[in-house]
Amino acid sequence: MSLQFTDHVNEFKRLRAEFWNTAGVCEELRAYEARDNDYEYKILKGLVPKPLVGRTNDIGPAWQKSDTFFTDFPTHNDPQRVLSSTERSHIICNIACHDTRLYSSDIDPSSLDKTAAAGMSYMHLLVIPSEKVYNAVSMSNTELITEMKTHFLDFWNRDDSADKVTHAICDAMERRYTEVARAYQRNDNSTAPQRLANLDAVMEECRISATNFANTLRTNRSSADVVLGFHSHPHHSVGHLHMHVVLADPQFRTYSTLAHDWKTLSFEAVEHVLGGEEVELTIPGGWPA
Ligand SMILES: [Zn+2]
Hints:
- By secondary structure, this protein is an alpha+beta fold.
- It contains 7 helices and 6 strands; from the N terminus they run αααβββαααβββα.
- The chain has one domain.
- Strands 1-2-3-5-4-6 form a 6-stranded antiparallel sheet.
- A hairpin with a 3-residue loop joins β1 (82-85) and β2 (89-93).
- Residues 231, 236-237, 242, 244 line the site of zinc ion.
């Protein structure tokens, strides 16, 4: 969002070349795609944290070493979390809440400023492939991202999309509230009531602005400025391809984080590179075929 098209193209080319020039990357990608849980992953980032391996988050099977939080998403999460599915991709709402006020130092249980962990806009959706695909830099053509974009546009043009989206955003906000309130209790019972009172006051404000955003979105959905983008390795979070879908209008970003704008490369730039470079780029080891 902050860089221009040519800058995005050049940056994506640079990160992609850097990725493919990393020794051992082909072998590691093959292990990841084959769900090899004995492999020692050193290059790929954003797999499930080691302490969670072998454990479950109440829903679905235990996490495996080669998993990410987006691997087999529907089996690890409440089905309600999936807003739309095709055979190849799912649309989900960002896990984090859109409102930075629930991540500020006076609210976050750690008392540290965690605002960068909030969403990038009131509406921050993610389109993820159902197959294991690591990142935009690891792809060799535009086929999958084209499907993901078409999927989103089909969803967005449906009459019930704005309702589904605002509902999911609300859920994410309430989940954040519960998570913070529980952490206060766990961390220090004596300060919990005071912190909880502060949280309730902030939450009240968040609910009011979320309702206003929801009304604005319902009225302006068809004309809303939606941008699609990718975070390229190594500047990504979850090690499973995810396309960010964000409302770009500054009003929808009032309480959201701008901390990731610098690394958000536009869909168009990624599409341009993946669509035109198949012949030009020599991928070491002949990967992928
Ligand atoms: Zn990302």
